[in-house]
Write a structure and sequence with these properties.
This protein is of the alpha/beta class. It has twelve helices and 14 strands.
């Protein structure tokens, strides 16, 4: 398999160079080029529609990163955008008081999400997880937090500690997904001081294989929380309105005390939500302060209500599961053809191609070559972050992607040979 010609991304590079004089790093955080394959991936996007995006140089990609998860339907989904535009034109969205749509959305969460009794709406996933932690600490009058998974960029949980005093996270302890003993050890030391156990109910660690919960893992975590009087929080920012309409808690049959939602909930509009037991949520009435000028803005509520309406009306998640299952089956057959060390993990709505680690550490170069070949073939996936299936990904998109994965793995096989563990 010949090496696919590198894409022209000169306009992206030009904008990035200019941006570095205006924005720290040119672009912030996870969107910086070194988080992809530097020199191969575009830095600036021009537009998107359905399951595809076009960069500023005119290159078109089938996008499986889906804006890091918010795109559940597709880019520029007409019904959602039309509802938002109508709200802007007919009623407005930013006022000193709150519009009725917050109640309608909260009622919908109560209908769909097992743990939902009351809700607070915010703007981002980090807002939601931090709100949940504040509520839990206010409810229990305790400080310690046991965490498992990525929960955002705020001081208590950010993984890059620059600029954050140690005292702001010294009471936060990490346990490992699917390792209940690691949680038990922590709770044996800090159980009486623990306000919350916060965890992703589905395992999606950065740059590692994805994991479903082992039998009994979620149930036992809940039992441990109850035993110690801690609040169990499921971080469903990625799984909510994607694994099922009621989230991973509905799919796996384990109900937490609180849950955090966002991303797919509004098909790209900025929203986060904390929902759960009334007795805990009511701490937000007076004892725990939660406020923002922009939390009550109704555009995201309108987008979420319309997105959820479409998800229900068109059986979207069922179709995503079917589409994703067929895709993963085909990708696994391609992987089995080669000895590159590639591995496929995840579930049909959320998948990831990683490479087994070898002593020579060729897996890093295999990964870079694989993802470079994919982007050159017009398939936008991420070397360190799992992908998503969107409703508007077409059969043609899936076919092209499977073929691109086949070509990319063949290239890796020729360049590197069989992986020797």
């Amino acid at each position: 398999m010949s090496n696919k010609e590198k894409l022209n991304i000169s306009k992206s590079v030009e904008l990035f160079d200019a941006g570095k004089k205006l924005i720290p790093g040119g672009v912030l955080g996870i969107r910086r080029p070194y988080n992809f394959v530097e020199g191969e991936y575009p830095v600036f996007v021009e537009s998107g529609k359905g399951g595809r995006v076009i960069d500023v140089d005119g290159n078109e990609y089938i996008d499986f990163l889906c804006a890091y998860g918010p795109i559940i339907l597709g880019y520029r989904e007409d019904e959602v955008d039309d509802a938002v535009v109508a709200q802007i034109r007919d009623k407005g969205f930013c006022f000193s008081l709150t519009q009725k749509y917050q109640n309608l959305l909260a009622e919908k969460l109560n209908e769909l999400v097992p743990c939902a009794e009351m809700s607070i709406f915010v703007k981002t996933g980090s807002d939601a997880t931090s709100t949940a932690i504040r509520l839990a600490r206010g409810y229990t009058d305790r400080t310690a937090v046991m965490r498992c998974g990525y929960h955002g960029w705020h001081d208590w949980c950010v993984e890059v500690k620059g600029g954050v005093p140690e005292k702001l996270y010294e009471d936060v302890y990490e346990f490992n997904y699917n390792d209940i003993d690691s949680l038990k050890v922590l709770m044996s030391k800090h159980g009486d001081e623990t306000a919350a156990i916060i965890m992703t109910p589905f395992g999606h660690p950065l740059a590692h294989k994805m994991e479903e919960p082992k039998p009994g893992f979620l149930e036992e975590a809940k039992s441990i929380a109850e035993k110690h009087g801690a609040v169990l929080i499921f971080d469903e920012i990625r799984t909510g309105f994607r694994i099922s309409m009621g989230g991973a808690q509905k799919y796996y049959g384990v109900t937490p005390d609180l849950a955090c939602f966002g991303k797919a909930m509004a098909n790209g509009y900025s929203i986060g939500a904390v929902t759960g037991k009334s007795e805990i949520m009511k701490k937000g009435e007076k004892d725990v302060f939660i406020s923002s000028t922009f939390f009550p803005n109704s555009l995201s509520y309108i987008a979420a209500l319309k997105t959820i309406e479409i998800l229900e009306r068109d059986n979207v998640l069922e179709k995503i599961w079917q589409k994703g299952a067929g895709f993963m089956e085909r990708v696994q057959k391609v992987i089995d053809k080669y000895g590159t060390g590639a591995e496929l993990s995840g579930i049909p709505p959320m998948f990831f191609v990683t490479f087994k680690k070898d002593a020579q550490k060729t897996y890093k170069k295999r990964r870079m070559d694989f993802y470079a070949q994919l982007i050159r073939r017009g398939v936008f996936m991420h070397p360190y972050h799992h992908g998503y299936i969107a409703y508007r990904h077409t059969g043609e998109d899936i076919d092209k992607t499977v073929n691109a994965i086949d070509d990319a793995l063949e290239y890796v096989q020729v360049e590197w040979g069989d992986l020797k563990l």
